[in-house]
From TrEMBL:
UniProt cross-references to Pfam families, sorted A to Z: FMN_red
Source superkingdom: Bacteria
NADPH-dependent FMN reductase-like domain location: 8-149
GO molecular function, one term: oxidoreductase activity
Protein name: NADPH-dependent FMN reductase-like domain-containing protein
GO cellular component: cytosol
C-alpha cells in the first residue's frame, strides 16, 4: 500500500528557500507516497515542562497526531550556525516527550537547503545525532544538499526550477520510498 510521508520544515519564514523545496515535494514524490506537510515548528511554544504539565498545547497535540499517522518523514531545513535551527529542535523536543515515542522506528531523510555553496552540509550530522536519540531509521545516503538554492528554486511557486536538481530530488524520493518499505515496522 501507499506510505504516508510527512514533510517537516525547519524554517518559519514565508519567503524561505527550504520551505519552497518542501512545497515542491508533493509534485516530485513517486505515486507510492501520499504527502502531508507537518505543522510548522513556528506553531509551537518553547518547550517548557510546566506548560506540558498544565496540559498539552493544542499545537503540540496537532503535531503529534500528524507525526503518528506518517510512515516516513522528510525533514527539509536550513542550517543555522552549522547546526539544527532552534525551532526545529524545539519541535523534536516536544514530540520526544510523548509516550510511546512517535518517532521511534520511523524512516527519515534530510534535505538541507542554503543560498551558500555548502548547501547546509553541516546540519546533516547535527540533525542525525538528534534523530538517533529518537531511534529513527535514518537514510543517510545519498545526502541531499541544495546549494546556491536561490538559482534553483522558485520561492513563490514552491517549485524546483533547475532540471538537474529536480531529477536528483525525484531519484532521492524514489530511493526513500524503497527504504521506507524495507525498514517499515508495519506491513507495506
Ligand atoms: C544562517 N545561514 C546559514 N547558512 C549556512 O549555509 N550555514 C549556516 O551555518 C548558516 N547560519 C545561519 C544562522 C542564522 C541564525 C540564520 C538566520 C541564517 C543562512 C541561511 O542559510 C539563509 O538565511 C537561508 O535562506 C535560511 O533558510 P530559509 O529560511 O530560506 O529556508
Amino acid at each position: 500500500g501507499k506510505r504516508h510521508l510527512g514533510i517537516w520544515e525547519g524554517s518559519l519564514r514565508s519567503a524561505s528557500l527550504s520551505r519552497a523545496a518542501a512545497r515542491a515535494v508533493a509534485g516530485l514524490a513517486p505515486g507510492g507516497f501520499s504527502v502531508e506537510t507537518l505543522p510548522n515548528p513556528g506553531t509551537l511554544p518553547l518547550f517548557d515542562q510546566d506548560v506540558m504539565d498544565r496540559g498539552l498545547p493544542e499545537s503540540v497535540a496537532a503535531l503529534l497526531a500528524a507525526v503518528t499517522r506518517c510512515d516516513a518523514i522528510l525533514i527539509v531545513t536550513p542550517e543555522y550556525n552549522w547546526s539544527v535551527p532552534g525551532a526545529l529542535k524545539n519541535a523534536i523536543d516536544w514530540v520526544s516527550r510523548a509516550q510511546p515515542v512517535p518517532l521511534a522506528g520511523k524512516p527519515v531523510a534530510i534535505w538541507s537547503v542554503s543560498p551558500g555553496l555548502l548547501g547546509g552540509a553541516r546540519v546533516h550530522e547535527s540533525l542525525r545525532h538528534v534523530l538517533h536519540s529518537q531511534d529513527m531509521r535514518i537514510m543517510a545516503k545519498p545526502e541531499v544538499q541544495i546549494a546556491q538554492a536561490r538559482a534553483k528554486l522558485d520561492v513563490e511557486a514552491g517549485r524546483i526550477t533547475d532540471p538537474q536538481t529536480e531529477a536528483f530530488l525525484r531519484g532521492h524520493l524514489e530511493q526513500f520510498l524503497r527504504y521506507s518499505r524495507q525498514t517499515a515496522l508495519t506491513e507495506a
